[in-house]
Design a protein that fits this description.
With 78 residues, the protein is mainly α. It has one domain: Arc Repressor Mutant, subunit A. 40% of the residues lie in helices and 5% in strands. It contains three helices and two strands. It has helices at residues 27-35, 40-46, 52-66, and strands spanning 7-8, 19-20. It has a two-stranded antiparallel sheet with strand order 1-2. α1 (27-35) packs across α3 (52-66). It is elongated.
Length: 78
């Protein structure tokens, strides 16, 4: 999947949600922590089994998911 080697999907881990290296730490948790002001160093202190690359790749994965093309449709006229 486009080089996201730290992102795993396992049906028996967190219901198959995107996780970090098979751990019970979801990508959405890490992204929410960053979005709410927690820095990478603080996250690593709180979750010592994580690595800075885990947080970076979570952000890259979410950015990849959000990279979408929006097509503006012309309004229909009667």
């Amino acid at each position: 999947m486009l080089g996201f080697d730290r992102i795993t999907f396992e049906p028996d881990v967190m219901g198959g949600r995107a996780c970090i290296r098979g751990l019970r730490v979801t990508v959405s948790l890490l992204v929410n922590l960053v979005a709410n002001g927690m820095g990478i160093e603080e996250i690593l202190e709180t979750y010592p089994y994580l690595e800075s690359g885990d947080v970076r790749q979570s952000l890259q994965y979410v950015a990849w998911l959000a990279d979408e093309t929006v097509y503006v449709l012309e309004p229909m006229t009667a």
